[in-house]
Amino acid sequence: MQSMSSLKEDPKLGDMPADEFRRYGKELVDWIADYFERIDEFPVLSQVEPGWLKQNLPAAAPEKGEDFSAVLSDVDKLILPAVTHWNHPSFHGLFSTSTSSVGIFGEMLTAAFDMKAMLWRTSPASTELEDVTLDWLRQMLGLPSEFEGIIYDTASVSTMQAIAAARERANVDVRELGMSGRDDLPLMRVYASEHVHSSIDKSVITLGLGTRSLRKIACNDRFEMIADELERAIAEDIAAGHLPICVIPTIGTTSSTSVDPVASIADICERHKIWMHVDAAYAGPTAIIAEMRPNFAGWERADSIVVNPHKWLFTPFDLSILYCRDLDMMKQAFSLVPEYLKTNEQSTVKNGMDYGIQLGRRFRSLKLWFVLRYFGREGIIARLSEHMRLARLFASWVEESENWEMLAPIPFALVCFRACPGGADDLDVLNETLMNAVNATGEAYLSHTKLNGKFTLRLSVGSIRVEERHIVKVWELLNAQLAAIP
Length: 486
Ligand code: PLP
Prior knowledge:
By secondary structure, the protein is α/β, with parallel strands linked by helices. It contains 16 helices and eleven strands. The protein has helices spanning about 5-10, 20-35, 50-55, 70-80, 100-115, 125-140, 155-170, 175, 200-205, 225-240, 260-270, 310, 325-335, 365-400, 425-440, 470-485; strands spanning about 150, 190-195, 215, 245-250, 275-280, 305, 320-325, 405, 415-420, 445-450, 455-460. The strands form two sheets. A seven-stranded mixed sheet has the order 1-7-6-5-4-2-3, with helices on both faces. A four-stranded antiparallel sheet has the order 8-9-11-10. Helix 15 packs across helix 16. The longest helix has about 35 residues, at about 365-400. The chain binds pyridoxal-5'-phosphate (PLP). Pyridoxal-5'-phosphate binds near residues 197 and 279.
């Protein structure tokens, strides 16, 4: 065994030497710049089989530290083939999301500071920059000044925290008494459209409300919640002795990006004093564009709103913002200060740990601050507008062709469509085969949903690197693959 004194002299103690860090750091930035320059050459979806990476990695960590160049060379050999390239301009599946280079700089610095923004004292920079950056974005989105934001990792978590605050405001004392073993507690209800994101189902599961508490409201033929149906459901529930606590309209649903009638829903929520949480995780950033504001009518009356810069604001995953009309409700639901976290200044400063279940929080606002400063409002508007133009351009080709049809309106930059060539027996099977064939080429990635029971192809345009030629390419690819299906 090594003695303590020899350990002290061991040159291997401490971190990587600064000159080595500098060398590899520069190499890595060059690597990333090259990667972005040649990203078009990679297959969008990783082409490896399940288990391939695991089989190619040693079963245990090395005994002795390795030269970092060996690690980097394994990134090329082993990691890259197993990467699905979300930053690829032909990534059109799910929602096309991407990071900007300045967003990556933000992540680098966040890791360098490695702060845990629990208390103002442990992280004045994070606490105050978060407030300032979220207020800048609030102004850009046109939200009233009562709204104060807090950053969480994902919309799933933002929404769960919002429902927890809604429950707190319903005065059922769940914080102290919990929900089990009580016979004084009515069935609590959360309402959302049948097209709501699955994270809302997961939220009611996690909060112990259970999926039976989530009442899904029918939609019209544009996939928008029918406000009269919501009104009817709430009246029925109140008559049955249930307790409505939260309604969640979506601006930009996941399947088709439909927009629920938020203003009418706000009327209903105000009448019944129910918390309204708006899910604008995907489409929220487009409120920066004045002409897009009609889609957001009524969201300024919400109790809380979730917007995800990591979806369509060029900010690396993860960064989700919950804007709250009364952020203190969140504090009421979650604040708990053990002795070892008490500070002299706690009554005069904001301590991030008070607003959710996390204690330590990443310094996430830095990357968003970089993005807002580097692109500015104009640069963001130009990019989002271009994505919406490209989506409409693609849709115009679909509309002009006899072999294709549109299956939903395009409020933002998602096209829902399918192939419908004459003579095809089963369009669901045909479109699924087509999607798989396109994805297998590695040239582009599309995903699907079901709308009105029909297998629907989804083409999302949102990459900071996308150009018209990529949209032309995926259209040609779709037509070539369609022609090749026997
Ligand atoms: N809400 C909507 C409308 C979404 O489309 C998504 C994901 O696509 C989410 C919420 C969940 O987002 P996150 O991955 O940040 O939890």
